[in-house]
Amino acid sequence: MKTGDWGGGFVKEQRHELILGELARRGAVSVAALAQRLGVSEATIRRDLDELARLGKVHRTHGGALSADPREELPLNLKATSYAAEKRRIGLAAAALIQPGQVVGCSGGTTVAHVATALRGKRVVVVTNALNIALELATSEEAEVIVTGGTLRGRSLELVGHVAERTFRELYVDVAVIGVDGISLEQGLTTYHLSEAQTNRVLMEQARQVWVVADHSKVEKVTPAYIGPLSRVSRFITDTDAPAPFLDELRRRGIDVVCA
Amino acid sequence: MKTGDWGGGFVKEQRHELILGELARRGAVSVAALAQRLGVSEATIRRDLDELARLGKVHRTHGGALSADPREELPLNLKATSYAAEKRRIGLAAAALIQPGQVVGCSGGTTVAHVATALRGKRVVVVTNALNIALELATSEEAEVIVTGGTLRGRSLELVGHVAERTFRELYVDVAVIGVDGISLEQGLTTYHLSEAQTNRVLMEQARQVWVVADHSKVEKVTPAYIGPLSRVSRFITDTDAPAPFLDELRRRGIDVVCA
DNA sequence: ACGCATACGCTCGATTTTGTTCGTTTTTGG
DNA sequence: CCAAAAACGAACAAAATCGAGCGTATGCGT
Question: Taking burial as the number of CB atoms within 10 A of a residue's CB, which of A18, A194, B19, B138 is the most buried?
Fold first, then answer.
């Protein structure tokens, strides 16, 4: 088999990652759909599912599987997130722009988690209100991690509320890396949940520079909760599929745009 | 080696660098693709991958390799902990004694993590300084989780320091569930790390009741850092292999002993 | 120059993985 | 409740991959 071109040739473990990712996002998968999506026979998918079931990671059903371990639904498995490749590049690009010794504030979200992964090995201080970001850096010898504390917001693993905001206010950060669910010329930065938006806003206020990271699917999208205006953003890091006109307009407004 | 080539002549270290780079970028590599890309035989790639695997830098698979996930070293997989069965029973027993609506403070440690797992589905408020405990409850619809914040202490996933202690002091908990590395009649409660001991002590001070959970291997053991005296403990929950004389002495001192 | 160590490619039998076929079980839809 | 359709599991065959052994080349020190 010729592997290595694009995403056609997967080894078993990659399929498992993808299956778990699909499961984390949708909660259920079907044998037929996975077989087609991954370009392998249904027998192979059944064997994969059986193996994952033996490991207790999925709950097998007729025609597919359900997620078994509730923790699998958490955004901890970075390889399994949507646009994982793009986000990885974004993370690497963002981390490369961080100077040693700087204090970096990180909001939640899987894109920011990729930034955190790329920050491992760099001598930095990371302040975050997201447990998945803290977890990414927990095994780093170099990075120091400060968690804000706060009330845990279920699936997103973000800490919000009075405790989180107060801790953020006690600290000044060189760079705030903000993950958003929508970035729009008209509506600015938005996310899905009000409490997270509020916490992010506090982080932005404490930062010398505000960097926004988001894959192209977030561009020109507006979600319910308003975080802040584009005027506070000093840099936007996205992938190469982001529409050029949008990026040009950002540049015209003085924002440094990076395409990874 | 034929050095006269183009860029195809790599020495081992260069290949290793390139493999790790590719792995960091894509998350997975295949033997065949690497062999073609680097212009060497597949046998050489296998040797490279085996060597990198011995160094713990990659995770070997059939047909290629995945980037070694450093998160696997974290105490997140409860089933893989030592004395998992005993700890699970301890967790269930402890959780059964918690009343709905109570506020529970949880320290770190895998035994306490099992308590947290058993608390999922109960309507309680959990205050904790340990990320693994917060994660166990993140998907719970019933339990509310408050994380103290603080400086992340590497592998143990505990938050310590000024922020953690201040948040604890702001709250009163009905029950503090403390995990210890040693419990001794003479030396009281001990753990391995001073900072964690200090944080646990603050939690104990804020609790109406202090429960200690530990499997039998911790009994009559003393570890470097002192947490507090047995006199503050109101209940000790352990497994059935704990030595009876020790438990009798605890009972004599007015501690409620539960063997799960 | 010689010997030695290291790195590499090649071959070949063993192992793992995958696809296919076929009889059986489960689900679905009257 | 019954029959068609879908899904399953087991068995087998083909392909890919692996590991080990062996020979060769290159570099290095004596």
Answer: B138
